[in-house]
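Today's session is about reading a structure prediction critically. Students often jump straight to the picture, but the first step is always the sequence itself: look for stretches that repeat, for charged clusters, for runs of hydrophobic residues. Only then move on to the predicted structure, which in these notes is written as discrete structure tokens rather than atom positions. Here is the chain we will use throughout the hour.
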Amino acid sequence: MSETLARWNALPVADAENEILACCGSQAWARGMALRRPLADEAALLGASDEIWRGLSEADWTEAFRSHPRIGESRVGQPVARSAAWSAQEQRRVTAEGDRIKIALAEGNREYERRFGRIFIVCATGKSGGDILDILRRRLQNDEAAELREAAEQQRQITQIRLKRWLAG
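Below is the predicted structure for this chain, in token form.
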């Protein structure tokens, strides 16, 4: 068992929730994770995360989505500093793009928000701004139900990456 996981397993529930919240952004998910302890290893942690995530309501998913900055933007003063730092790291290839891509992403973000009423969420790790712009344009063709499922899956992937980073310390 990792040192981080052993320490987290021993925390009071409220402290455990607060610590892991940066990995997802949903209070219900964080509470579910804290109540699932003790977790023996990374595989148990990731499995519990997926199970809890898939059992949450649309409102809980939306809460997690709102914890992210828009693609191509940073969120100064974001309440969960670790989450803000991870978002910046995940989007570093996007922020290095030229103005043309950044402007197109900003326009796409606005169109997405008008269409779906929430920010565009994508697992940006390892993707260029052009890749993300292509994904955004494709997903704008989804209906509401399909897009909600896709956004939830992207958040699940982000959470898995962040849990691994959190464990690594």
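Discussion point for the tutorial: The chain has one domain: 3-168.
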